Amino acid sequence: MLLDNTPATIAIGIDPGASGAIAAIDLTTGDAFAIDIPTRTIRSRSGRTKPILDHDELIAVTRHHWGDARAIATVENPSSFRQGSVGAATFAANISACITAMAAIEVPRLLVAPLTWKRAMGLSSNKAASIALAGRYFPFADLGTKATADRAEALLIALYGVQIAPSRFIAASAIAAPKTG
Predict the structure, then answer these.
(1) Lower CB density within 10 Å: C or N end of the chain?
(2) Is the pTM of this model over 0.70?
């Protein structure tokens, strides 16, 4: 947590979708890891099941990993939703839960639109390109597959947070330029 103006040593990135991810980069070592957003399954009145964000597990995970860390979180926050009204409300609730989880452990938050961070990183909506770029920056991180590209994107969101607010983080000399080839 940051109770003074001491720079953060951990950059957290959050892709808050139901199949989203949370990632962290240790700016002193360059180590990075990403995990899927914790979910639980619910059954609708029609009998269908669907995963939803598990708020309690999200708070437990964030406390476990970053409860005592000097961290800043960058949270993806789309300004518009292409889903129906129920999908948009669910997504907005996920964003709120992620922001609340960070607030619970006193981690400052930066909000960023998907188009903003993707343009800054030279990306489009192509998930494979996100995985490739994250893999070049963080070759040892478990990024999953195209179907789970959210881990890669969470890492890139964290990295974007360092790029837009460098004065709030320690010098990120441990993060090298992306590996080519």
Answers:
(1) C
(2) yes
